[in-house]
Structure formats: structure tokens, C-alpha cells
Amino acid sequence: MAAIKARLESVFQKVFDDQSIRIHEGMTADDVEEWDSVMHISLLISIEQEFGIQFRTEEVMSVANVGDFITLLEKKVEAHDTK
Amino acid sequence: MTHGTQSRSGLAPAKGADAYSDRIIYFEELFRSGGLDTLRTGSEVLTLAHQFQKIESQFFEKHREEMAEKRVAIMASFSTQHLTTVFKLYLARKGILGTIYEASYNSVQFEIMNRDSGMYNFAPEILILLLSPEALPDMPALFASSDELQSWVDRTAERFQTWWKLASAGGVRHIFHSLLPAPLFRPLGALEANVLFSPTNLIRWLNLQLVKTRPNNVTFFDLEAMAAQVGKENWTDERNAFISKQGFSMDYFGFVSSSVANLVAAAAGKHKKCLVIDLDNTLWGGVIGEDGIEGIKVGPGDPLGEAFSAFQTYIKQLKQRGVILAACSKNFDDVARLPFQKHPNMVLDLADFALFVANWEHKVDNLQTIASRLNIGLDSLVFVDDSIAEREQVRRFLPQVGVVDLPEDPAGYIRAIDFAGHFDWLELSREDLMRTDSYVTENQRHVMLSLACDYNDYLRSLEMQATFVPVDQSTVPRLTQLINKTNQFNLRGSRYSQNMISDFLGDGSSRHVIAVDFKDRFSHFGITSCVVLERQSDALFIDTWVMSCRVFKRGLEFAVVNNILNFARALGLGRIIGEYLPTKRNAIVSDLYTDLGFEKTAPPMALSSGALRFELPVVCAQRRDHFITVSTLE
Fold this sequence. Notes:
By secondary structure, chain A is mainly α. Chain A has helices spanning 2-15, 37-51, 57-62, 66-82. In chain B, helix 2 packs across helix 3 and helix 3 (81-93) crosses helix 11.
């Protein structure tokens, strides 16, 4: 989980172009200045590329905060690796 | 699985105190190296585009001199926010500072039909229309008769034609309109191909109908061809279409942006004109100086030879469509010419090359010589060479030259040049096609000049003929092209749209347009000079005067000023007024009016600094001598 969080943090830093970003589970779009609906799409496809996975339409809609991303990634990356 | 494979190209230097200048340098290097063409995913492209956005204004500040500003409106039947961000990055790469107006999602019809819309208030010079099949009105039902289908195609095409007319009337000069890709999914299955009423065939039909009725200020870009190039299966991304209305996969935002940016660059006169090509291991396999005629590979019977002849055929096709060819080889001149003279399988002829430069100088120096001999800018050149070292030298010292990265295998040469899209022009004109030949004969002129005792003898020997041709709607496209492409001999830096020129020809217009066709004993150049005169109360004002650089120093300006003088006399006007408004490139004509006997007068306050105003009183004006036979066609 820590590994996933660290990788996710690096994606956030890159997408929002800010090395000082530190993510935490309760973090939402309100906590990051540039995190609007447009940047959300950039974030999504960058996470998909970093982890080599694809979110289902329903999963995209269900993510409300960073914690949701981590939970989802744990599930998907595991499924992906054991395939 | 992908951990650690993140592309390094996605990491521009981080923010920080001095990071702006580091980041500007990073993007300069990225643009120069062609790195933007190798990005593979939407994520990489978007991250870079987003990083560029932050330093955009500083980047433009630094490169203000060589960048052109364009106001562009983008309208689509899908969401464009990400695409626009990426598009600006690719515009910057082509030297364009894009100020973009984005219409809100799916408001194309409203924005164009309503003269008070945000789009018209923004006053764009360029309008980009991106449409997907969803933007089309209801398609005809199954079993629709061919008349019904034709009527649907006509109606739909007419709707777009109305948009173009309204946008043009509202001041838009260029419209870039997407041809539609037929959808990936085919509800009729294999029948999609077999019945005219299938969505696939209707969209093909509509695309053809649009091409058939294309006005000159509209340029299509073919999303169907782009989707086919990358594979329509990859192109289509249902999920992102559902969650955020993306028109196609974000992995191709860079590809589409790059193609459209080429068109915008062409509209800004920043298109490439000349292909400078190496010989050994580029046009044939092997080194002629070492392997000899029998040893080099070109032609049938050998796979490598076949690859080189296919490549030569492609290069010849470029030449036939008007791209100027120049050979540039590290060789002895006579040795480099041997294959063209002796090898039976060469596709290209020596006569295909406007210039043949074979010597032992640096290629960087030779490129400068080639540009100056052809009288075109270095930024009009594309350099093709199999040597990585030569390419790097050119990139480093002449960043304005387009450089094609040839792969190691000659089988991939055509692909490399074709995909680079350097020759995405807006128009193919007969003058362009004549031009390549006229450059070739320019060499023969050089020989004559060296033989002639003085320059006048030389001019006399050229047997030049200028014809003042009637100007009507059929000449408008060429005149518009000439005015907008001419940077050097352009006294007031004029730029006009086709509609504006058309208006000058109308009844009651105070303007008069002069067009001059020029030829000499070697070639026919077509229309090479254009003047727009404006009749004022007691004076004739030279609103526009342009002349193609290919006919400089021939005395054509004397023939033209005589014609202007005749015109002023015929109208009984007392003075001719000319102005020189300096631009980045027109210093060459700063003394023209003085040389033509005009007197300098005080420029009006409204003119920008450096502007000069001149007058020629018609009574005492003398006809200028020249060596051109002049005629007028009525």
C-alpha cells in the first residue's frame, strides 16, 4: 500500500506540476488548487499509465478522494499482477 | 508492470526560483530535437502541455522576434479543453503564438449563426471546426432512395457551406474544417460496405461532396485519414467519450494538434518550400566515390535497391507537386553527378534539382548558400540526410531548418519524410509548379550572368516579357496567395483575404488591382507582382505593392511604376503617394520609392515609427527605362 501511495503521489506531483504536493487519504479536489474537472481527466489517464491499468466508467464516477483511488488501485494492481 | 518505465520526456524541470528559464530551455530543446513527435500517450502529451502553459508567456516574450501571433477560434461537437492545451504546445513548436477562443461544448451552430456571439467578438483570423458524426443531422432511414440520400448529403453540405460564408463575412480569413471519420462500429455489419444508405457510405459521400464544393479559404484536415493511420480501433475511446465527451482517444491529441498546427503555420507563411537532400546512402545505397557506378544500389533486383528507387520516386512526386529540390553532398561535384548521368536505374534527374551542391564544405554553410541562392529563408528548408552527425549539426546551428530523422533502414525513409508533414500547404498553385522549373533555370541564368559583360547586357539577353493581365474572380486566389506569402518585397506588409480582394474588384470600389505575369527566355513565372491602388481625391495611393523574390533585380518594378503612372494620368490625378511600413522582413524595399524618383514627405502622425511616406507629382514624373517587353491584356 505504501508503495502504491508513493507512486500515486509522484503522479499527482507531475500532473499538477508541483513537487511539494503530499497526498493523504482524505484529500479531495478542494485541497488542490488546480484539481478541477478538466485536470481530473489528466489525472485519471496519468494514473492509468503509471499503473498500467484501466478504470471502468463506473469506477471513474465512484472516486471521491485520494483514499478511493488507493483502494481502487490496490484492487486493480493486485488483480493485474496475479493474472 | 509499468513502474519505472514512465517516459522521461514527461518531466520538465520543476518549479522554483530560476525554474522558468530552465524550463524555457527545456522546451526549446524539445522543439528543436523533434522530441514532441515521439510522445506516445495522452498522459505524456497532456503533462507536457500543462507544464508549457505555465511558462507560455515567458517563452513568447523570449522568442517574440521569430514568432507570429494568430487568433484562433476552436469549435467542436465534442469537448476541446484538453485538445486546446495540447494544440497550443504544438503551435508554439511551429513558431506560432496562439491566442485561442474556445466555444463551449457543442455550441458551434449558435456561435456561427449569431453575429453577437463570443466568437465574433473575439475576432479570430482562423476558425477550426472539429466535427464528429454525432454532429450530423438525422441520417436517412434504411432503404432511402438514392435521391433521398443525395438530398441529405446536399443539405448537410450546404449547412457547413452556410457556416463558412457567415464566418468569412464575420472576418475569419482561414477555416480549417475536419472531414468526418466514419464510425468504428458498424450496425449493418458487412452490409455497411454494400449499401449506399449505410452510415459509413453516407459519411464518405458527404466528405467527397464537401471537397467538391470547397471554397478557397477553407482547408480540410482529414480525421478519417488520421484515424486510419493510427488504427480506428485505437482512435476510438468510448469510455473517455462517455465520461468527458472527448472526440477521440487522447493518445492522438498530439498527432492531430501537430497536423492542424502545420496548417496554421502555413497560413502564417511559415511553411517549408525546399527539400535539401544528401546523396550517398540517402538517394542510393553506398558511396559513389568508393563503390562506383556498378557498386551503388538503386533499382530492381535487390531489395535495398528497390527501397532506394521507391524513395527516389517519392522525392520526385514531391518535386512534381512544387517542392524545390536541392542536392547537398560531401563529394567532388563530377563524382556526385555520375549516378544521374550513368546509372540506368535512377528515378531522379539532374534537372529535377534546382541546385546541385557537391563539395567538401560544412553542410551548415551549404544550407546557407542554398537558401541565399534560391532567395528563400532558411526556415523554408527541410534537411534530409542519413548521417546523424550532420543532422545534429544542422539542428544545433540552424534550428529554423526542418530536419527529418531518417531511420537506419532505407525501407523507412518515405515514412519518415511523409509523416513529418513538412509540406502541408494550403494551396497547390500552378505558379508553385512552374516555380521549381524556374529555379532550375535560374542556374542557367547564373551562367549567362557570368558570361555577360555587364548587367544590362545580361538583362537584355533574358528576353523578358511582362504582361499586365486582367484581374477577375479567377485570379483572386493567386493574388491573395501572392500578397500573403510575400514578406520581402511588400511595401506596407499587406495581408488580405480573398473576400477583401474580391471586394476591390466590385463596381463602385475606390480600388484598382494590377496583376503582372512575367516570363523570360528560360521560364514562365506566372503572376509575380500585384499592386492595389486606391483613388483618393486628387491622388493615387499605393495601398499594396508586392513582388515575388524570384523576379528581383530584373527591372520589373520600373515597368510596374510606369503602369501606375499611366493609370494616374488616365484618371487625371496629380500625385502618386507611396508608403513604406517596415516589417521584420521588408528592409529590401525601404529605398524603393526613392530609387523610383519619389520625394519623401512628412508621414502622417498615425503611422508607426520607421514608416516613410513618398510622393511623385505626375506632371514631372519620367518613365523609367528597363529591358522588359511590356504588353497589356484586356
